[in-house]
């Protein structure tokens, strides 16, 4: 199989696959390092992380590669659960990841919503849907902390949104892409 296949229905762009693989690797490394940074947050609510790897996925969305963002994010979630997590953490991450991706994919199309606003909404939706997933295992009592989780998701989303804005600004001035 060559780097680019001529068959239009089965075309593989090796450069794109390599970039996605690199982005997944970066997301996994950032997520691993983030576990150590988020220890103080985890003391409040177990499993809470800032979600810095989401800035990488959001960068793909804001650069117009929503399909690539989905591939990178789903791959990251699966590999992260296999390497660092458990089946339950996989379900929590997947539910939050899908919800935040849908939110970001929709909001990024509106010029009136900034990268920071999109990231804030994505962070809040991530935590809302993780709470719904937690209800399956813990029960409806987990809903009591939902307002706190929404606030925490918005704060973490704002942090990731600022990082995203810096990345996008750098990409505009860079001649790499």
Keywords:
single chain, 177 residues, mainly alpha, Arp2/3 complex 21 kDa subunit ARPC3, 7 helices, 0% strand, globular
Overview of this structure, please?
- There is one protein chain.
- With about 180 residues, the chain is mainly alpha-helical.
- The protein has a single domain, classed as Arp2/3 complex 21 kDa subunit ARPC3.
- The chain is built from seven helices and no strands.
- The protein has helices spanning about 15-35, 40-45, 55-60, 65-85, 85-105, 115-140, 145-175.
- It is globular and about 50 Å long.
- The relative contact order is 0.12.
- Residues about 1-5 have low confidence and may be disordered.
Shape: globular
Helix % is over 70%
Question: What is the overall number of helices?
Answer: 7
Multimer state: single chain
Note the main sheet. Answer: none
- Element pattern in H and E: HHHHHHH
Strand content: under 5%
Summarize the topology.
Layout: H1 14-37, H2 39-44, H3 53-62, H4 66-84, H5 87-107, H6 115-138, H7 146-173
Please give a quick description of this structure.
This protein has 177 residues and is mainly alpha-helical. 75% of the residues lie in helices and 0% in strands.
């Amino acid at each position: 199989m060559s780097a680019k296949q001529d068959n239009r229905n089965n075309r593989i762009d090796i450069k794109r696959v390599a970039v996605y693989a690199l982005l997944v690797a970066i997301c996994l490394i950032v997520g691993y390092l983030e576990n150590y940074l988020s220890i103080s947050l985890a003391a409040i609510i177990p499993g809470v992380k800032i979600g810095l790897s989401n800035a990488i996925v959001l960068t793909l969305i804001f650069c117009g590669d929503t399909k690539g963002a989905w591939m990178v994010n789903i791959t990251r979630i699966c590999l992260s659960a296999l390497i660092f997590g458990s089946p339950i953490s996989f379900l929590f991450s997947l539910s939050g990841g899908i919800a935040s991706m849908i939110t970001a994919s929709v909001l990024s199309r509106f010029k009136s919503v900034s990268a920071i606003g999109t990231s804030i909404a994505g962070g809040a939706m991530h935590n809302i849907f993780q709470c719904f997933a937690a209800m399956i295992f813990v029960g409806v009592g987990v809903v009591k902390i939902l307002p706190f989780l929404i606030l925490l998701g918005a704060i973490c989303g704002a942090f990731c949104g600022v990082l995203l804005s810096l990345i996008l600004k750098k990409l505009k001035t860079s001649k790499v892409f």
